[in-house]
């Protein structure tokens, strides 16, 4: 739910009719008061799942937004953390709000599809950003991530199980994606944000094609569905 400090309906409308980059520049000051910010329980669950896989030297928060994922990395990485995002507004908020002790943090404005780094990272994480990439962009995106990881480095992100067909969550996501497709058919520039295009089977296949060894790890904090499958997984892909 939106908090009282969050954006107004008018502000959301203006943002939705902007480009992705400009929309997030506008949203940045109030982003942490919206449901789009990754909940702390997800961040904590991912940190707990990754801790036994370390220690890690340097970490990259891909599409870092206001820096929630960078906060996770400061718990896991000993030598330094970098956050990268293409929204200057989001990075400005991240610089102001993320002030860890003991681990240097830097912020870089760049597109995730053209990362300006050498293979310098031991761990790359990302939270809630993949709806901004069309399915055809995944091979290039995953290739970019692999290119900035050191040999043996890890790419990790949480992925929730899709809502069951016919459920309220299913129809909610379907309706949102349909509305975005209509908006993008009628209005320019496009605003790419689709919740149903990042499917586990496709993601696993493209990660493997990019040269990763993929492992799925249940996040027990979120329990299991009636059929016994996890409600949320951590996808780990090792270079």
UniProtKB/TrEMBL annotation:
The keyword Nucleotidyltransferase does not apply. Keywords: Methyltransferase, Transferase. Transmembrane segments: none annotated. GO terms for molecular function: methyltransferase activity. One of its GO terms (biological process) is methylation. It comes from the Bacteria. Residues 60-153 form the Methyltransferase domain. It comes from Streptomyces fumanus. PANTHER family: METHYLTRANSFERASE. The keyword Transferase applies. This is Methyltransferase. Pfam families: Methyltransf_25.
């Amino acid at each position: 739910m939106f908090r009282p400090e969050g954006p107004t309906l008018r502000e959301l409308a203006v943002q939705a009719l902007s480009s992705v980059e400009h929309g997030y520049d506008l949203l940045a000051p109030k982003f942490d008061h919206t449901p789009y910010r990754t909940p702390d329980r997800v961040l904590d669950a991912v940190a707990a799942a990754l801790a036994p896989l370390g220690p890690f030297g340097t970490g990259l928060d891909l599409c870092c937004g206001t820096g929630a994922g960078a906060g996770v990395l400061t718990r896991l990485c000993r030598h330094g953390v970098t956050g990268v995002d293409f929204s200057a507004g989001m990075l400005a908020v991240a610089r102001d709000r993320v002030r860890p002790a003991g681990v240097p943090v830097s912020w870089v404005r760049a597109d995730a599809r053209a990362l300006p780094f050498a293979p310098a990272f031991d761990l790359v994480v990302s939270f809630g950003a993949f709806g901004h990439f069309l399915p055809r962009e995944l091979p290039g995106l995953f290739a970019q991530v692999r290119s900035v990881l050191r040999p043996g480095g890890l790419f990790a992100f949480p992925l929730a199980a899709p809502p069951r067909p016919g459920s309220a969550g299913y129809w909610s996501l379907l309706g949102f994606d349909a509305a975005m497709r209509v908006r993008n058919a009628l209005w320019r520039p496009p605003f790419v944000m689709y919740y149903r295009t990042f499917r586990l089977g496709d993601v696993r296949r493209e990660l493997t094609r990019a040269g990763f060894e993929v492992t799925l790890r249940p996040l027990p904090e979120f329990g299991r569905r009636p059929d016994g499958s996890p409600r949320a997984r951590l996808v780990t892909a090792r270079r």
